[in-house]
Amino acid sequence: MKTLNLKNTVLLLICIFGFSISASAQKTTIQVNELPENAKSFIKQHFKNETVSYVIKEEEFLVIDEYKVALSDGTEIEFNKNGNWKEISNKTKGIKTSVIPNKILNYCTKSFPNTNIKKIEKSRWKYEVELSNDLDLEFDSDGNFKRIDD
Fold this sequence. Notes:
Helix content is 29%, strand content 37%. It has helices spanning 2-24, 37-46, 102-111; strands at 26-30, 52-60, 63-71, 76-80, 85-89, 117-122, 126-131, 136-140, 145-149. The radius of gyration is 21 Å and the shape is globular.
């Protein structure tokens, strides 16, 4: 009888663990109009000639974590829950210069004239930039060059 109870307990724990994993990260396809206003404005301002291929909302434990947007030109944008961009990439063409902070764009254009920016990531304290020559650059939150990242 103890073995049967132990088996049931183990089975119950496995079910609970499986449910918690599936509930921890949910990805849902949504419509563009369901994005936060900041994200919609950003797309409209910088990518008005592109169509949105898809939008994915990611939730963790039923709280929105981020949005991922793919555009017809190959650009992918990640927005935080408030609709502020976190990452922009376009591995084939490079990203549009209008989305790159001026200091970063000027530095990259002057220091690496025959390259384009394939990816830019923004966090609270820094920007990380990936160039088409595969160099990774790091800038502070004001756009000042810090270093080439290995």
